[in-house]
Structures are given as structure tokens and as C-alpha cells.
Sequence to fold (308 residues):
Amino acid sequence: MTQETREPHVTQETHVTHGFRLAYGTNGLTDLRLDDALALLADLGYRGVALTLDHMHLDPLAPDLARRTAAVAARLDQLGLAVAVETGARYVLDPRRKHGPSLLDPDPDARARRIGMLTDAVTVAADLGATALHCFSGHRPEGTPDETAWSRLADSFTPLVNAATAAGVPLAVEPEPGHLLADLAGFHRLRRLLGSPDALRLTLDIGHCRCLEPDPVPDCVTAAGPWLAHVQIEDMRRGVHEHLPFGAGEIDFPPVLAALAATGYTGLLSVELPRHSHAGPQLAAESHAFLTAALADARASRPSEVPR
Fold:
């Protein structure tokens, strides 16, 4: 490692587990400039960042995207931060419709706008050397039959899978409560519809597992293991889709982290608190301390599953 790219921020987390990197999502730091957010995370001891492409952080629709991406790549390298690219910005394509248009929009031209943005995001992810490109399905439009919606989703994903395959970037779809693809069963349904392409992988949100999956959270993690390319984490309550700071929900984290380590996952474990940007720097610090302690507890209780 060169003088310019060494990782100066080594904390206890590095010694607790070297399988995955602790990261924080920029959608929880929207009150900070991107460069300030990256510097903050590196100073706090994070080793990765989940970068949401949005108007305030590497806008995918603004001019000179390639040049701006190269500048971000250089900064990430300087700070020793790995990156995953996320595409869940609420109003990046439509200032009036949250997450609109989606891959399920009845209007083919509207769907094409989302597909085009996601295709550009594949290029951004490749240029950043990202661990994964995250995406999700969107809500089923009112009045759209189930089979029609799934067929439309598969058609929309086909060019994205092709682009991700060509770029060598895992396309990590997230089961999102309330969306057409809402759970792990939905992920496997999409995989089957597409012929199980290697590039199609999974973003697992730990909180979502508590919110709606039928199995205990550690069991969900174990079941998801073979397909994981990106993992988001926060606290949550059963049946309530609300991203909460650690300790404010119902999840027992050491068994979850032990289960994740046991899968052999080597990507980012990224804190996702998108409605808490007003307290982003404080929560980023508290979250890192919480997860570092939870990893230590996990290793103490299940040492064979949580490597140093």
C-alpha cells in the first residue's frame, strides 16, 4: 500500500472481524457536503461508505459525471474507504413523486428513464471500483395484475443485468417493504424469472428482516448468505417499517453479526438511517461504537464464527 493510499484510521473493528467492513450510508448525511461526509466517516473509523447518487452527493443527472466520479474515486482511495453505490434517492428523477418513475411504471418511456439512470449508475459503480450497485423494484402500480407487474420487472431488469455483467459489478436488488419485491421470496422469484444470472445479487436490510420476514433475523441472514453483495443495518420493530438508531428497536445484534460473519460475506455492512441526517455526525459516531461493541460480544459468545 502506498503512502498516499494507506488506511490511517485503524480501530478495534479491524481486529474484531476482517470479513466485512463497517460503513455508513450518505443518505443519512445529506446535510453534509460529500467530501465532508467521507472525511467524517474515515475519521470515525469506518472502512466503507454506501454512496447514494443524489442531487447533493454525486448527482447522476448533472454534467461531467465521469469527471466528478473520478474525483470521488480519488478521494475514496486517499481515505481508504471501500464503496457501494446505492440508487434509492427519493426525488432524483421526479421532484413530485417519491422514487418515481420506477421500473414498474405503466409508461414505457418513464420506465426507460429509470433504466437509463440505473445503467449510468452501473458505470459509476464500475469507475469507483464499487463492491455492489444497489437497486429496488418500486411499488406495484394501482390496478396492475401481479403477473403483469412481475413480467414488467423482469423485462426492466434484463438490460440492467446485462450492463452489470459486462461491467463486472454485482447488481444487488433490495427487498423493500411495500414494494413488489418486498422479501427474500420475492428476490428468488425475480432470479427464477431472469434465469438465475450470476450478476443478480442481493442487498439484505437487517431491519427489514425484523420488520416482515417470517424467520428470526439470524436465520434470514444465513439463508441469504449465498447471494449477498450488500448489507444494510439499523434497528427496527416488527411490522413497522421505520429505520431506527441502534437500541431503539427490537433486534439483538450480536447473533445477527455472528450469523453474517459465518456466511463468509466480505462486502460492506452499512448503517442506514435516511431520516436522521439532522443528527448524522452524532449518529455515525454512536453507530460505529455500537457495532464495534456488538461485534466484540458476538465473537465472545461465538468465537468460531466471528474471526479476528
Q: What stands out?
A: Confidence is low (pLDDT under 50) at residues 1-18.
